[in-house]
Design goal:
3 domains; alpha/beta; elongated; 60% helix; Rossmann fold; 5-stranded parallel β-sheet
Length: 440
C-alpha cells in the first residue's frame, strides 16, 4: 500500500501519472448533472469517509488486554494507528483525485489505481493480495474487540454473565461464538451485500464515538483536573464531529439499510437495561448480607459419598449444601478455582460460617471447569465399593421461565451433561426460587 502511494506520488510530481479515460457509458452521471448536486455528493463522500475511518474503537475496547501500563501502551497504539490512517487514507485520496477514478461494477477502485501506477506487472497482483489481506485482518477486528466489550458489559451486569467467562484458550469464547452466529445471520439476511452492511457498522461505531467523547467531556467538566480546559476542548470537538458524522451517515444511508438501526439499537438498549435490572434483583435475592446462617452438623446416618459443588457463598449454595447434609454425612464441598482472589474470598466466608465440612479446591489455571471436575469425579468413582453410588449436588435457579435459560444455569447444564456419562454417579439438582416475577 505504501509502495502504491509513494510511486503514485512520484509519478504525480514528475507528470507521468495520467488520469483514466472513461467512456461516456462508464461514467455514473453526466458531468453537467454533477455540478447541480455538489452538496449531496459532498455529504455522501463525507459519510463514506467516516465509514472508512472507523476501526480505532478496537484499541479502546482492548485496553484491559494491553501490557502494563495499559493506558500508556494503548495511547501509543492509537498514535501509530492514527498516523497510518492519515498516510494511507490521504495517499489513496490523492491518487483517486489525480487519476480521477470512478467505481465500476466489476473492477475495484484499488485495482484501477494499481493498474495505472504499476501496469499489469507483478506489483499489480501484490496490491490485490495485500488488499485482500487487509480486509481479512479488518474482518478479524470484530472478533478481537466485541468479545472483550461484551465481557466488560457482562461484568457490569448489562449482558449475560456467560460473556465474562474465558474458555480453555483464555479467550472469550462465548462472545466469539455470538459474533460468529450474528455475522452469519446478517450475511444470509443481506445476501452478503457489503454495501448494505456497512451502515450497520459505521453508524454503530460513530454512536459509540459520540457517547464516549461526550462522557469524557462531562468528566473533565466535573473533575476539573489540571489541563481540564484543553481536554474539554478536544473531547467537545470530537463529540460534535462524530455526532455530525453519525447523523450524515444515518441519513445518507437510511434507505440503504440504516433504517434497521432505528429499531435494533433501542431494542439492544432495552435488553441491556432489563439485564442489569434482573441481575441487580437477583444479586439482592441470593445475597448473604445480613443473612443469619447457623451451621449444623449432618444428622444423616447415610455414609454414601456426596460431593456438593460450591462456586459462591450465597443463599442458593447454602440451601444446596444443607440438602447435601440431609442425604449424607460423608460430604465433600468442591470448588473449582478459576480466579485466586475469588477463591480466597470463598475460603474466608467458609471459615466465617464455621463450617467443618472440608472445602476441596481444585485450581484450574486454564479456566476449564468441566475437565478437572470430570477427572475428580472419575477418581472418586474408581474408589467406590461394590454397589455404591457417588452423588453430585448442583444448584439450579428457578425464576419465571425464559430468564433462566438466558441468564442462569448454563454451567449446571454442561456439568450435568458431562456427569451423565459416569455409570455410578447420580446428579441431583437443588432448585432455588428467586421469584423473578416480582422484579421491580
Amino acid at each position: 500500500m505504501f509502495a502504491l502511494i509513494i510511486t503514485g506520488f512520484i509519478k504525480g510530481i514528475t507528470g507521468t501519472l495520467n488520469p483514466i479515460d472513461y467512456t461516456a457509458a462508464q461514467e455514473l452521471l453526466p458531468r453537467e448533472t454533477l455540478s447541480g448536486i455538489t452538496l449531496l455528493i459532498f455529504l455522501r463522500a463525507f459519510s463514506s469517509g467516516c465509514s472508512a475511518l472507523t476501526g480505532v474503537e478496537a484499541v479502546s475496547d482492548a485496553v484491559p488486554s494491553f501490557r502494563d501500563p495499559a493506558t500508556k501502551t494503548a495511547r501509543h497504539v492509537l498514535y501509530m494507528l492514527g498516523t497510518i490512517i492519515i498516510i494511507i487514507f490521504g495517499g489513496i485520496s490523492f491518487l483517486a483525485s489525480a487519476i480521477k477514478v470512478i467505481p465500476l461494477p466489476n473492477v475495484t477502485v484499488m485495482s484501477q489505481m494499481a493498474e495505472v501506477v504499476f501496469g499489469k506487472g507483478i506489483m499489480f497482483y501484490v496490491i490485490q493480495f495485500t488488499t485482500a489481506l487487509i480486509l481479512l485482518l479488518a474482518a478479524n477486528t470484530a472478533y478481537n474487540g466485541l468479545p472483550i466489550l461484551l465481557s466488560i458489559l457482562s461484568k457490569d451486569r448489562y449482558m449475560p454473565l456467560q460473556f465474562a467467562q474465558r474458555g480453555t484458550k483464555l479467550s472469550f469464547s462465548n462472545g466469539i461464538m455470538f459474533i460468529f452466529i450474528a455475522g452469519a445471520l446478517l450475511l444470509i439476511a443481506f445476501k452478503a451485500d457489503i454495501h448494505a452492511l456497512i451502515p450497520f457498522y459505521a453508524v454503530g461505531v460513530l454512536i459509540s464515538f459520540t457517547i464516549s467523547q461526550s462522557g469524557m467531556f462531562i468528566k473533565w467538566t466535573k473533575l476539573k483536573e489540571q489541563g481540564w480546559r484543553y481536554k474539554c476542548l478536544i473531547n467537545g470537538i470530537g463529540a460534535i464531529v462524530t455526532f455530525i458524522g453519525m447523523v450524515v451517515v444515518f441519513v445518507m444511508k437510511f434507505s440503504g439499510g440504516a433504517w434497521v438501526l432505528a429499531i435494533v439499537i433501542p431494542l439492544i438498549m432495552l435488553f441491556m437495561l432489563y439485564t442489569h435490572r434482573h441481575y441487580t434483583y437477583f444479586g439482592k435475592a441470593i445475597s448473604i448480607e445480613g443473612y443469619d446462617y447457623h451451621y449444623e452438623e449432618s444428622k444423616s446416618r447415610d455414609m454414601l459419598p456426596c460431593v456438593v459443588l460450591i462456586h459462591n457463598m450465597n443463599k442458593a449454595s447454602l440451601k444446596t449444601f444443607d440438602y447435601a447434609k440431609d442425604i449424607s454425612s460423608n460430604i465433600v464441598a468442591l470448588h473449582i478455582s478459576t480466579t485466586p482472589d475469588h477463591t480466597k474470598e470463598l475460603k474466608r466466608q467458609w471459615e466465617e460460617f464455621k463450617i467443618t465440612v472440608p472445602l476441596t479446591i481444585i485450581p484450574t489455571p486454564y479456566r476449564d471447569i468441566l475437565q478437572p471436575l470430570d477427572q475428580y469425579i472419575a477418581d472418586r468413582e474408581s474408589k467406590l465399593l461394590h454397589g455404591q453410588r457417588l452423588t453430585v449436588v448442583l444448584t439450579k435457579f428457578i425464576g419465571s421461565g425464559w430468564q433462566d435459560r438466558i441468564f442462569h444455569n448454563q454451567t449446571s447444564y454442561f456439568i450435568e451433561s458431562k456427569l451423565v456419562k459416569h455409570k455410578n454417579v447420580v446428579t441431583v439438582l437443588v432448585p432455588y426460587l428467586y421469584r423473578a416475577k416480582d422484579e421491580e
